[in-house]
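Renewal narrative, Specific Aim 1. Our central claim is that a sequence can be written position by position from structural information alone. The example that follows is taken directly from our test logs and has not been curated for this report. It begins with the structure tokens describing the chain, in the order in which they were read.
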């Protein structure tokens, strides 16, 4: 009799557990379906194109999305421009307010003469700081790729109250992500350049150098649109644009000395950090991505089987990760 009662109780508990499990599965499926429907129902926002006078320099920028929604500031890399984010803007604009400027000497922005702008990363960050103030955005997530790292981290250190989160794509803040030869070459450019060093910089700031960054480590080089490279060539072939970008390559050593400050910001502020990294990048190596977790243990890292400009091949999964990570 006692055994029968135990069996009945066990059976009743199993049935209850099965019902609860079924409800949970149904609820999860409903939530996923609702999320998919929500995504599908959010219309694409038109991108608009503008210029802003910033410290006497005409800065071009792209903007999309509702300004009442969370803002993402997209900071591009070398030798690119906001054009590198053209497809990402389309995918993120239904959920976010997007602003993507071109640096002086890049893309569609002015390439100011030497008497109007001294090309250093500190000065580049000052121009972007003035741009942010002009745009009246006081809270934003910042997407940083390549040169975007030195610019974005300088803004973050100076104005931690501005930063709501980080999206890091092949942008270094640790020596771990740089080869010993890269570090040696960068530091050697701190002094007067030799003829050999000048030749090396000229090669980096060339169409051939840009093509290497676009194609190296990609799964299908022939499948890449030539539009990004051609857009970069426009700025590279401008004499002042070429001068500015060359000077920034020479000045890159200054960023290595700033790494401890950037790391302190990460450790102190613990910003929500999503890292999306082209793992075959010849310049910024995967250990540079892993190093972020030393200071931000909750940072998420996602690797993609591609190169320096990961968005060219993996725009779809990267945009989905951003939406998921920063979903409100």
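The sequence written for that structure reads:
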């Amino acid at each position: 009799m006692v055994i029968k009662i135990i069996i009945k109780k066990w059976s009743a508990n199993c049935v209850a557990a099965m019902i609860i499990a079924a409800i949970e599965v149904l609820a999860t499926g409903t939530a996923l379906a609702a999320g998919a429907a929500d995504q599908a129902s959010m219309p694409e926002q038109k991108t608009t194109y503008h210029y802003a006078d910033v410290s006497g320099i005409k800065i071009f920028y792209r903007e999309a999305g509702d300004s009442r929604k969370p803002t993402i500031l997209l900071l591009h890399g070398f030798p690119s421009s906001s054009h590198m984010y053209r497809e990402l803007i389309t995918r993120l604009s239904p959920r976010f307010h997007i602003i993507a400027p071109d640096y002086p000497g890049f893309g569609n922005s002015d390439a100011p003469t030497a008497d109007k702008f001294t090309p250093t990363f500190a000065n580049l960050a000052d121009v972007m700081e003035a741009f942010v103030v002009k745009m009246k955005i006081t809270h934003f997530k910042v997407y940083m790729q390549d040169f975007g790292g030195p610019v974005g981290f300088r803004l973050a250190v100076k104005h931690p109250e501005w930063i709501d989160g980080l999206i890091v794509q092949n942008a270094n803040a640790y020596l771990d992500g740089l080869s010993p030869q890269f570090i040696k070459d960068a530091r050697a450019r701190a002094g007067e350049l030799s003829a050999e060093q000048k030749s090396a910089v000229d090669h980096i700031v060339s169409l051939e150098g840009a093509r290497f960054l676009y194609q190296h480590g990609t799964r299908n080089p022939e499948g890449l649109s030539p539009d990004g490279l051609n857009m970069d060539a426009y700025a590279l072939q401008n004499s002042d644009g070429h001068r500015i970008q060359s000077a920034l390559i020479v000045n890159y050593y200054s960023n290595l000395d700033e790494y401890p400050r950037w790391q302190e910001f990460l450790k102190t502020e613990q910003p929500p950090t999503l890292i999306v990294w082209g793992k075959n990048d010849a310049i910024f190596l995967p250990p540079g991505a892993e190093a972020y977790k030393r200071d931000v243990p909750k940072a998420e890292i996602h690797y993609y089987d591609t190169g320096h400009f990961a968005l060219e091949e993996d725009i779809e999964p990267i945009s989905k990760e951003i939406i998921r990570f920063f979903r409100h």
